[in-house]
Design goal:
Length: about 100
């Protein structure tokens, strides 16, 4: 996790809204989604990373609804090319993933 966080600013960049990438993402979303989401250019999803054992500090807060000790990760992507625009990692497994 530390390695990912150290490289965040070097590789993860949010696209400017007036960029060609944002225009392509907007076109993709308009063609593939419901009318309520057609003004968007990003997709977001969360997932759990299971831990080998219960952490020593605040261990119970890492216990997820899936009955595992885990960390939560949330990724924001550009749906037309799957490039990661941002992410969040490290919230305890008991935090909701939506």
């Amino acid at each position: 996790m530390t390695a990912l966080l150290e490289q965040h600013d070097a590789f993860i960049k949010f696209p400017p809204l007036n960029s060609d990438d944002a225009a392509r993402a907007h076109h993709y979303v308009q063609s593939k989604s419901c009318p309520e989401w057609q003004n968007g250019i990003l997709a977001v999803d969360g997932s759990f990373f299971n831990l080998h054992q219960k952490p020593g500090h605040y261990g119970e807060s890492f216990y997820s609804r899936k009955s595992q000790y885990s960390l939560n990760c949330q990724a924001v992507i550009m749906p037309h090319n799957l490039i990661i625009a941002d992410y969040s990692i490290g919230h305890t497994g008991s935090a909701h993933d939506a």
